[in-house]
Amino acid sequence: MNRFFLLILAPMLPLVGVQAQEPETLVADMVPVETVVDTHAADSISALRLRLQPKPIVSNPDTNNLTIIDTLDSGNEALRVILYSNNTWKYILDREVAKDSTVFEKYWNTTTLFPYREVDLSSMPQSIVIQLLDSVTSYHCPYQGSVHPHGKYGPRRHRQHQGIDLPLKTGDPIYATFSGRVRISQYNTGGYGNLVIIRHDNGLETYYGHLAERLVETNQWVEAGQIIGLGGSTGRSTGPHLHFETRYYGRAFDPERLIDFKNGILCRETFLLKKSFFNIHSNAAQDFDDEIANEEQDKHEIAEQAARRYHTIRQGDTLSTLATKYDTTVTNLCRLNGIKPNSIIRYGQKIRVK
Ligand SMILES: [Zn+2]
Q1: Are 304 and 161 within 8 A, CB to CB?
Q2: How much distance in Å is there from the Cα of 350 to the middle of ligand 1?
Q3: Does 344 share its domain with 287?
Q4: Are 332 and 250 in the same domain?
Q5: Tell me: the pLDDT tens digits for 45-65?
Q6: 12 C-alpha to ligand 1 centroid (Å)
Q7: H or E segment at 232?
């Protein structure tokens, strides 16, 4: 039996299927790939394609300051209907009734940032379908804004940025992206500062770093759109921003694959998480020192570029007259322009002098 499936299937309850090579029955029945005879391949692939069509989902309206006026039965013991004072309503999962022990008990660690270290993803399928939304689960943008151009996910010089950075004003509310349970709410000395980590019903985890204030506690259940903290600049940070990460079994992938932060919308209801989205070679921890070093390097480069000066060669100019004129040396001019002291400079040529 494939060890990965044993480890991973139970917690992935909302999982509805996997990509073409691994028919849906594989997930449901936990049968290894080799033994499955796929008789419904065409059907399930087209059905899957249909579900994977990008479909923008707008945030739920905020219910944070609304009064609940009534709670109704839904016919399903685990589901309650909550009515709000502004005539909106939503389903709420009764956690006591609908206890899903697997997602929230297995690898449930309220002190370690990365509890999945021992999970081996080498036998993970090439892609996994994650149901982000259904009748019960909803979505809210963690913070609507533009991702900082230097705060995108991925390789930055020699290191990895494991999340995205969203500039904000200190005190701006930060929302739970999906419903779930708070696994970590603590001040992290490794760079995140005030950090909240939420594990969601769909098996994903979201990380919210540099918060000015945390408004939820460890083990607390949260709904999508609930305010979980206020944005800030705690930890290794150069200014107020939200450092936001999305992880699956501890492996980070680009949050912009899920969310259009500028417009605040979820890109799709069903997310095809490909193994290639993870950077397998990077370790789980985020290196904030490197983030700050990168930022300083950026500033240095921008300042250096802005300070550059050029001179257009006129009649009578020589490298030594230019060196005198711009208070520099012939050697320096040669270095800046990749030329030799005896190189011929032509009329009209642009020479960098600073
Ligand atoms: Zn960051």
Answers
A1: no
A2: 40
A3: no
A4: no
A5: 555 555 555 556 666 667 777
A6: 28
A7: none
